[in-house]
Design a protein that fits this description.
280 residues, MetI-like fold, 0% strand
């Protein structure tokens, strides 16, 4: 039953939502405006919500002080590979756990979910030793392989399994009557229907890879191999002090793809979480 709210209540609700929005919007606003302020104006008291003077040279200095374009590309292509790889493996694993009956399936899925309970800090030293023996230190391979086959992929597998469980079994039965095998049923029928769940997995995975910090500082030491979270810590002066306006400019350019991805894919993100459910 739909209930129409009075104009007064609507106005009050919109006002309340605007107030609650401030803690989420203000840090982003402060970051963007600080990126075009001189350092002296950033720490002015009382603080200025709008720059007294604009200094856009900070964005050019970001690329002068660091190989920022290369670092940007590093984060972009790593996040793209990790996202596609996680979607591929998690969708196949989720479908297998949801639709293929085999002995010990529930027990094995429980073991897989236990991977979510292990902090990444616990496994970082063994992983470093493994990649050191494989000759992959100071390369991007650890940043690609660990997320695809680690905890982020476990969560993605859980999301995909929950979605595939909710699919009607009649779809598979009709496909078998038409002579389709298991893989074709997955590829032609199940996977296209899983677009909302895949959208949610893609956003979660992209954000995780884009913001990854611990693994890059452990596995990478060459500046031209840095990813963006690692690069943001390098904008310091000769005395080791932070160059705040330049850091804010770099942070603004770093946050921009994340905002764009979420704005473009927020519908799929919400639908994916709504259709996933907790069945099974």
């Amino acid at each position: 039953m739909k209930t129409d709210l009075s104009p007064t209540i609507k106005t009050a609700l919109y006002g309340l939502m605007c107030v609650l929005l401030i803690p989420f919007v203000f840090p982003t606003w402060w970051m963007i405006t600080s990126s075009v302020k001189p350092i002296s104006d950033i720490f002015a008291f009382p603080p200025d919500l709008w720059p007294r003077r604009f200094d856009f040279t900070t964005y050019g200095k970001v690329f002068e002080l660091q190989p920022f374009a290369q670092q940007y590309w590093n984060s972009a292509y790593i996040a793209a590979i990790v996202t596609v790889g996680t979607m591929a493996f998690s969708s196949m694993a989720g479908y297998a756990f949801a639709r293929i009956k085999f002995p010990g399936a529930d027990f094995l899925f429980t073991i897989v979910l236990l991977g979510l309970l292990i902090p990444s800090e616990v496994t970082i030293v063994p992983l470093f030793q493994i990649f050191l023996k494989w000759g992959m230190i100071n390369t991007h391979w650890p940043l690609i392989l660990v997320p695809i086959f680690g905890a982020p992929s476990v969560f993605a597998t859980f999301v995909m399994r929950q979605f595939f469980i909710a699919l009607p079994g009649e779809l598979e039965e009709a496909a078998r009557v038409d002579g389709l095998g298991r893989f074709k049923i997955f590829w032609i029928i199940a996977l296209p229907l899983a677009k909302p769940a895949l959208g949610a997995v893609a956003i979660f995975t992209f954000l995780h890879s884009w913001n990854l910090y611990l693994e890059p500082i452990v596995f990478i030491s060459a500046k031209n191999m840095f990813t963006l979270p690692q690069a943001l810590t390098q904008f310091t002066d000769a005395y080791g002090g932070a160059m705040w306006n330049i850091q804010m400019a770099a942070a603004t350019m770093t946050a921009l793809p994340v905002l764009l991805v979420f704005i473009v894919a927020q519908k799929q993100f919400v639908e994916g979480l709504a259709h996933t459910g907790l069945k099974g």
